[in-house]
Amino acid sequence: MSTIDGAALVKAGGATFHVDMAGDGTPVLLVPGAGGDARQYAELAQVLAQNHTVIAYDRRNNGRSPQQPDWSETSVEQHAGDVIALLETLGTPPCVVFGNSTGALIALAAALKATGRFTGVVLHEPALLGVLASPDDAMATVQPVIAAGVEAGGLAGGAEAFVRFAAGDAVALLPPDFLEGLRTNARVLLEAEFGAFASWRPEPKALAEMSMPLTILSAEQTAPFFLEAAQWIASHAGVSRRAVPGGHMGFLNHPREIAEEIDAML
């Protein structure tokens, strides 16, 4: 698939998406997590574009994608449908899909929904809280962070505090324009997505019957609940979990290592 580098607004599945495309070669789709903004993948996309056509997009109502003012709720399944509709509209041949955190949930849901659209799935630090033995413990880790941010700066402060916490040591590498978009769309993250995404879980039978290659990546500097979630997926899908450098958003400071895992899938 050959493309001209650049950005465009693409209508698909009843919404409009900001789409960044770069490179030439076998296609890779990047699904963003918290903030829903592809700018968090800028360095990863640049590395991947040396060998692949890279498609990175801002999720529904996030980042540079137009806001739908009457939109107040969503689901992982809705975002998975967006992925499929976007690929169909772009005319993209079957591709590898990569997602981090909640983006990993969307990538997995899309792959389970439309197997023929994908040649492989790479999940990095999947935030699959719905399978945890004690999800309240995981929420107790992040809720004080968000609460302190909200107290200091409203919803915008809460959203930024959450993502800065998730980025950990790589926080300085978050693009300023990404943070600006995150603050602008804080209501989407905290009021529409946070709870809906936390309750989603795939059917174990569907994971066991997956026919496409699946890679599950856990960060070396991660929280126990992310390890538990990754292992749950791995055990039901019958694959091994792999460790990669960095923290929860390790693609910020280790883009080449993450790109190598995606290359290995191809």
UniProtKB/TrEMBL annotation:
<dbReference type="InterPro" id="IPR000073">
    <property type="entry name" value="AB_hydrolase_1"/>
</dbReference>
<dbReference type="InterPro" id="IPR050471">
    <property type="entry name" value="AB_hydrolase"/>
</dbReference>
<keyword id="KW-0378">Hydrolase</keyword>
<dbReference type="InterPro" id="IPR029058">
    <property type="entry name" value="AB_hydrolase_fold"/>
</dbReference>
<dbReference type="GO" id="GO:0004806">
    <property type="term" value="F:triacylglycerol lipase activity"/>
</dbReference>
<dbReference type="GO" id="GO:0046503">
    <property type="term" value="P:glycerolipid catabolic process"/>
</dbReference>
<protein>
    <submittedName>
        <fullName>Alpha/beta fold hydrolase</fullName>
    </submittedName>
</protein>
<dbReference type="Pfam" id="PF12697">
    <property type="entry name" value="Abhydrolase_6"/>
</dbReference>
<feature type="domain" description="AB hydrolase-1">
    <location>
        <begin position="28"/>
        <end position="260"/>
    </location>
</feature>
